[in-house]
Amino acid sequence: MPSQFNMRTFSLDLKFSVSQSHRFDGMNPPAIKEQLLSSKMGTLALQGFLVLSKPMMTWRRHHYAKPANWQRRTYRQKVRWRCRHPDPQVDYAGLVDKRKVGEFAKSLLPVPQHIACVRIPAEIEKLALPDSFVMKASHGWNMHALVRDGKVTRHSCDKADEGEKATGANLSRIASGWFRSKENLLLRAREWQYRGLEPGILFEQIIDVEYELELFLFHGQYRIAMIHLRKPGENGPVSDGYLLYDQYWNRLEPGSHKDAKLYNHSSPGVPPPDPGLLS
Predict the structure, then answer these.
(1) Rounded to whole angstroms, how far apart are CA atoms 129 and 26?
(2) pLDDT tens for each residue of 41-80
(3) pLDDT tens-digit map of 160-175
(4) What 3-state class would DSSP assign to 248?
(5) Which residue in 39, 71, 215, 233 has a CA-CA distance of 20 to 30 Å to 242?
């Protein structure tokens, strides 16, 4: 870092960095440094780059350093803290994009058959879709529609669409609503991982299951399992509450009165999955 610099020099460097920032897309810090050195304003720009780097590192240490009482905090408190202090160096978008996660998971587990993925709702009208499938947004949650025998039998956002024919125009209209939905806007505003996520619509094979398994991992190790139970409904399986298990498959009770309302106390439980899945 240069021993001296003045505000005028820093301003020039900052303007250069902003105006030429597109030149650094996909480059790592050493490559950026080399690019800056080879430029016309090499010395000045490099000074600006180094000066800007230190405040960024200071910001990250201040906002992401764990609090002193971290070990005494409860699980809920730790999760809430991490939600408010996301690490800017982590690619959270890649962890919540359903399309990317599906590509990763299929190398480890059986997954529903992928039919199509579009980024623009109007492209749906060009697809040759089967009579039955699931349509869902890859960029958020609670945005899905179930199609059976050419009809929309379930829509998470608008019950008025249920019973309508699953034409390309109708599906395109539903998808357009997901792109501008209040839930989508709130996710992008409140949750860091959704901000850089490219919207998309997925079409997948329907799989009717008795329950869904959700695992919570700490330091890469499974510790808690949440079982989302399903029961037969008029248009397919519907929610029947949930169960909780620890890593030894001992049943756990809900942690709050609010959660207890959805907990299925009458369920006999479910058998543990294949040990290889939990290891």
Answers:
(1) 36
(2) 444 444 444 444 445 555 555 556 788 898 898 877 888 8
(3) 888 899 999 999 999 9
(4) coil
(5) 71
Tell me the C-alpha distance between 149 and 128, whole Å: 14
Residue 38's pLDDT band, with cuts at 50, 70 and 90, is low
The total of other beta-carbon atoms located within 10 Å of residue 239's CB is 13
- Report H helices in the chain: 7-19, 29-37, 42-64, 75-84, 93-96, 98-105, 168-179, 182-190, 257-260, 275-278
Cα atoms in the 13 Å half-sphere on the side-chain side of 59: 9
One-letter amino acid for residue 225 of the chain: A
Question: Which one-letter DSSP state was computed for residue 273?
Answer: -
Nearest residue to 212 (alpha-carbon basis) of 242, 236, 182: 242
Q: What's at 247, amino acid-wise?
A: Q
**Could you give the 3-state DSSP secondary structure of residue 224?**
strand
Compute the half-sphere exposure of residue 270: CA atoms within 13 Å on the CB side of its CA.
20
Q: What is the pLDDT at residue 30?
A: 53
**Residue 183 contacts residue 272 (beta carbons within 8 Å):** no
- DSSP symbols for 142-169: S-EEEEETTEEEEESS-GGGTTSB--HH
Which tokens in the block code for residue 146? 């179930």
Residues present in the chain in total: 279
275 contacts 247 by C-beta, under 8 angstroms: no
Residues 259 and 252 sit within 8 Å (Cβ to Cβ): no
> 221 - beta bridge partners?
218
